Amino acid sequence: MASNDDLRDVVRRIYHARVQGDLDGLMSFLDDGCMFRVAGDQHLSPLTDPVVGAEALRATMQYLIDNWDMRGIDFVSIHIDGDVALVHRAGRMRFGATEYDAEIMDKMTFENGKLKECAEFIDTLQAAALLDMITLPARG
Hints:
This protein is an alpha+beta fold. The protein contains four helices and six strands, in the order H-H-E-E-H-E-E-E-E-H. The model has no long low-confidence stretch (mean pLDDT 93).
């Protein structure tokens, strides 16, 4: 198990690679069997479908890099408990031409120094609307 400071540094480096669009750098932190998922109901599939394995993760991470601009997202806090990091982030995010306020919470589980699982908690209603999976009523 890495020290809290070491794991906190790895977490920051993972997000830095993601924001910079460094797919190879990002992938270097992931275990070959890593699972990434957005927490949510199966009715929001494929948004909430788990992504497992290096090939599927590479494709998903490339999609996220290409379509979801997170340069305006900052760390609120990083809490470490053993091999688990709870990461709270907030700020301005962009999907295509739409910029909006976002708040994200990730639970990252590490094994042997590599990210083994990441569960991401986002506003799934907002994401589903941006992906044209649902239509939100106009605000009155």
